[in-house]
Amino acid sequence: MRWMMWVKRAAAGAALFVLLGLVACGRPTGGAGEAGSGASAPAEAPAAPGPAAGEKPSGAKAIGITQIVEHPSLDAIREGILEGLAEAGYVEGKTLQVDYENAQGDRSIATAIAEKFAASPLDLVIAITTTSAQAVKEAVTDKPIVFAAVTDPVAAGLVEALDRPGERITGSSDQTPVDLELDLIRKVLPDARTIGIVYHSGEVNAEAQLRATEAAARDRGLAIEKRGVTAAAEVPQAVASIARRVDAFLILNDNLVVSAADAYLDAAGEARKPVFASDPDTVAKGAVATYGIDQRALGRRTGEIAARILDGTPPSAIPVLVVRDTELVVNRRALERLGIVLPAALEAEVKVAY
After folding, report:
1. Domain chopping of the chain, boundaries
2. Which PANTHER family match (predicted)?
3. Do 225 and 231 meet the contact criterion of CB atoms below 8 Å apart?
4. Topology of domain 178-292+326-353, per CATH?
């Protein structure tokens, strides 16, 4: 019968498996010169254990990084900070332990992160954005603080003055000159009269930029149509509500609004209104142009500040870094989609084009 033949073959296979196992057990484990001796080679010494995951490497410095929300510009700043630290000898996982926390756009989470860092044995705290920096300054009283991506550190109450930051806090500002952005709009759209701005109401950084933009707009004969929001989900509706009354939109260095850039651009696109930005990453997504700051380079220079403090320089001896170098970034696809042709003088200025 076939099933009896199958049983016999299975039994034979099992016997062969056992035989091979016995041979393997009796095989010497030494090299070729030890064949047949039955002696085992001495076991290799175990490698020296490295630090466990999350454990601080011996002799390393420990820092905390808090960021209000993740979007390309802020991520580029954070990556640049780590690059700047590494160039100074503070390499993550070797000579530097990094505790990174993202507040997911929530002020209460930013406060909880700051309180966690206040209770942690850190050598330095880095806060990316105004909201995170304000939370850290309030909670952390015994550690040096470095901030980044803060448009107006004085208005935010972080420092007394840019050249006299205070005993334990300093950092960098990403303030983009609003006059440059408005002049850019006038050059690209000479007939523009009203600019739409959606901003994070109640946030110091956003409101300071809005006031500066309104003042600069008055000097240029431009009107500002504004709408405040308190959550990213409100952005597209705010854009749609004023789209018919504006000639173009301008996105400020406003982290809540920038985090909703895709929805913002979609809403403006439906109304066929051009969007100008304050950062290159939003142009890459579909805004038409900006005079932007290289965020990664800003991060590297902020990392250099952090390294100097880890080396022993007090924050009070390091003035706030204000980067004023900008480059013209354009999105040719967005311009073409809206039928906009750049003037020849602007074409000659373009440094980055998408």
Report:
1. 61-174+295-322, 178-292+326-353
2. ABC TRANSPORTER, SUBSTRATE-BINDING LIPOPROTEIN, ABC TRANSPORTER, SUBSTRATE-BINDING LIPOPROTEIN-RELATED
3. no
4. Rossmann fold (3.40.50)
Give me the residue label for tokens 């991520």.
75
pTM of the complete model: 0.75
Q: Of 186, 229, 239, whose CA–CA distance to 206 is shortest?
A: 229
CATH of 61-174+295-322, one of 3.30.930.10, 3.20.20.10, 3.40.50.2300, 3.30.1330.30: 3.40.50.2300
Task: Note the pLDDT tens digit of each residue in 64-111.
Answer: 999 999 988 999 999 999 999 999 999 999 999 999 999 999 999 999
Long-range CB contacts (< 8 A, 24+ apart) of 222-225? 222/182, 222/185, 222/186, 222/192, 222/193, 222/194, 222/195, 223/193, 223/194, 223/195, 224/194, 224/195, 224/196, 224/197, 225/194, 225/195, 225/196, 225/197
Closest CA to 158 of 121, 128, 119, 179: 128
